[in-house]
Every structure is written in structure tokens, then in C-alpha cells.
């Protein structure tokens, strides 16, 4: 917990939580909690290793706290580094949730033998940390939920939990909405910007690590015209502005434009790019004119809502008609599929990035665009 980064944050969350663990709240809070399923291809490797502990503890101790929020919250705090330590005016914060020694002691953990804690300290052991810290964070969630319910403030309880964690629950209780703005709850401009940025960061990670919601039906879409020409080298014009495409790749691009419309604002596909030198990846099909990328939303942003559905429609349509279109492989939403790839834990198999791309990044993991590579005819 890094509340000490904000002047006057204090440990209100620690002091109030025991007073608000009211058993009668459990049923109502659990039934109103948002639910999210996990995109296993996207979550950090360390989170996946300890997912059994996360799901067991949340189910038993805090059913209103979705596991995807635990994973996102910890990622925002420590990047899932169990040994993370950051110094602050209270001495420092340690472990996955970045709790200071007072917080950790309140959660039932041992005193630290030194600052930073030694490598064998319980606060730095992932499973032990999760078993103690998740119920501690849940106390903040229930503190926030009770206050927001009683006052009618519009902030969701999970966001209130985040305010308590980063700034102290006094910021929640003394602000008009539950999220402090500059000039209220002892929060100056820097404080307000820190809180808002922290909430945005966790929200982005929740979206990134949530289920992709696909694939979807494409029964309403027309089948493509099969490619029957003779494939050759990169000789066909690239309508997306690149150097050239192979005839088979140009055919795929034209069929996508026919079925999904020309890329542009308001269209199912907002932007497209095919030939590119890709100097950072000499093995790329882009530099051979055998690959195209299709963006249903803004480049660099995780596709959501209608844009996510549009991307799944394109990926599913390409898979359905892979033989007619000579599709070599498709990458989308952290998943890789080719005609010879059996499904493994979802659509295709997890995409690894090939040692070139960061699969947790919106573009590197192909969460913002559908990549297609076209084989030779």
C-alpha cells in the first residue's frame, strides 16, 4: 500500500476496516459484485502460477472480489514481482500488494526482521502473501461498499477499494463522489491525478485480463470467393500504402473489404496495414507481402465492446474460410491459430510472441489488431 506517496493519506483503511466487517452485508455485496472471467492467454505468468490460491481465497473469504481484479490490482502495485520493495515515509512497502509493515502485521503477517524484509520473510512469499493480503484488501472493499451504500455516492465499490489502497479511506469518505478531486478530502492536484491515474491503470488491466468474449457466429456473412490464381512474388499493389503484396494476399485483402467494408472511421475495420519492412523482425511475413493487420479499434488500445466483437467476427470468418483464402495463420487476442493447430485452452493456442513481441502489450499481444499471414497457393 503506497498511501504515503500522498500527503496525509494515513492508515485510515487499517483503522476503519475492523469496525465495518458486518456479517449482514455479505449477501447483498456478493450479489451486486461485477463478474469477469479470465483470459488465461493474457494474465502474467506469475499470476497464472498462483491462480489456484487466488481463486480459493476469494471464494472462501471474499466472493465479491473477482479474481481478475486481484490480478490487475497486484499488477498495478508490483508488476507481479513477489520480492518488490519500495521505500516511503513509513519505512517501505513490500510484496505483491505492496503493503507496509503495519498493514502486513494487521493482515496477520510477521514483523519484518529488517527493512527491506529479508528474502525469506513471509511478506515476500507469493502464496502466503495472497492468503493474508486478499482478506485485508477485502476489508477495504467492504469498508468502501458500506460507506458508498450508506451515502449514495456513485463510485463503484471496487473503485472505492482502490481509493482506500492508494490514498487511504479518508479520501473516499471525505470526497463528494468517493473519488477525490483537487481541493477536497485533503487532496491537492497531484494527489487527485495520482488517484485517477491509478484507477485508470487498474481498469485497463482488468480489461486486458478479462475474457475476450469470442469467437462469435459468422453465419450471416457471405463466403469469400476462393483464390484460384497463380501465386507469385510480391508483385500486386498494396492498397494500404505499402510496397507490394503477393496475389494471394491481395485477394484476401480485397475479399475482406468486400465482406466487411473499406477500412475507415465508423466501419467494422477502422484501419489496415499490409506490407511493411519490419526491420525488427526479419522473419515477418509483412516484409514479403504475405501479411496484413486489421484494426477494429484504435491502435495501441485493447479492443472492447463492439470493436472486440468486430475483431472476433473477422478472425472467425478467416478461420472458417481458411482453405479458400489460403490462410497460413491468424493471431488475435493473445491467441494463435493455423489450419494445423488444434485448440488448446481456447481459440487456437496461446500466442508467445516468438521472443520478439511483449504479449501483454495491446499491439504485441495482438489485442488491438487481427494479424493474418497468407500461404503460397
From TrEMBL:
It comes from the Bacteria. InterPro entries: ARB_07466-like_C (IPR058593), Lysozyme-like_dom_sf (IPR023346). It holds the Pfam family VldE. Residues 242-355 form the ARB-07466-like C-terminal domain. Coiled coil: none annotated. This is Transglycosylase-like protein with SLT domain. It comes from Pseudonocardia kunmingensis.
Amino acid at each position: 500500500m503506497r498511501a504515503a506517496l500522498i500527503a496525509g493519506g494515513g492508515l485510515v483503511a487499517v483503522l476503519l476496516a475492523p469496525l465495518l466487517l458486518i456479517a449482514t452485508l455479505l449477501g447483498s455485496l456478493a450479489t451486486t459484485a461485477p463478474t469477469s472471467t479470465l483470459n488465461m492467454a493474457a494474465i502474467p505468468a506469475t499470476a497464472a502460477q498462483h491462480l489456484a490460491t487466488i481463486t480459493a481465497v476469494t471464494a472462501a473469504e471474499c466472493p465479491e472480489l473477482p479474481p481478475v481484479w486481484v490480478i490487475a490490482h497486484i499488477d498495478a502495485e508490483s508488476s507481479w514481482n513477489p520480492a518488490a520493495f519500495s521505500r516511503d515515509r513509513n519505512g517501505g512497502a513490500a510484496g505483491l500488494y505492496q503493503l507496509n509493515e503495519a498493514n502486513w502485521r494487521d493482515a496477520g503477517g510477521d514483523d519484518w526482521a529488517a527493512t527491506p524484509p529479508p528474502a525469506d520473510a513471509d511478506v515476500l512469499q507469493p502464496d502466503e502473501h495472497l492468503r493474508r493480503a486478499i482478506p485485508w484488501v477485502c476489508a477495504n472493499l467492504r469498508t468502501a461498499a458500506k460507506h458508498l451504500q450508506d451515502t449514495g455516492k456513485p463510485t463503484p465499490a471496487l473503485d472505492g477499494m482502490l481509493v482506500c489502497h492508494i490514498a487511504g479511506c479518508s479520501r473516499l469518505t471525505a470526497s463528494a463522489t468517493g473519488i477525490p478531486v483537487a481541493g477536497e478530502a485533503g487532496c491537492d492536484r497531484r494527489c487527485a491525478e495520482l488517484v485517477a491515474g491509478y484507477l485508470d491503470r487498474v481498469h485497463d488491466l482488468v480489461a486486458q485480463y478479462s475474457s475476450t468474449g469470442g469467437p462469435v457466429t459468422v453465419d450471416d456473412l457471405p463466403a469469400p470467393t476462393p483464390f484460384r490464381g497463380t501465386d507469385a512474388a510480391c508483385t500486386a499493389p498494396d492498397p494500404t500504402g505499402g510496397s507490394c503484396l503477393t496475389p494471394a494476399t491481395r485477394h484476401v485483402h480485397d475479399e475482406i473489404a468486400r465482406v466487411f467494408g473499406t477500412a475507415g472511421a465508423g466501419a467494422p475495420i477502422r484501419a489496415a496495414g499490409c506490407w511493411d519492412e519490419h526491420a525488427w523482425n526479419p522473419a515477418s511475413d509483412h516484409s514479403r507481402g504475405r501479411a496484413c493487420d486489421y484494426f477494429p479499434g484504435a491502435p495501441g488500445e485493447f479492443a472492447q465492446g463492439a470493436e472486440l466483437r468486430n475483431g472476433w467476427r473477422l478472425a472467425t470468418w478467416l478461420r472458417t474460410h481458411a482453405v479458400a483464402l489460403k490462410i497460413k495463420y491468424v493471431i488475435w487476442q493473445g491467441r494463435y491459430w493455423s489450419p494445423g493447430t488444434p485448440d488448446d485452452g481456447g481459440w487456437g493456442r496461446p500466442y508467445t510472441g516468438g521472443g520478439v513481441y511483449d504479449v501483454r502489450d495491446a499491439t504485441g499481444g495482438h489485442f488491438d489488431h487481427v494479424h493474418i499471414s497468407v500461404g503460397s497457393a
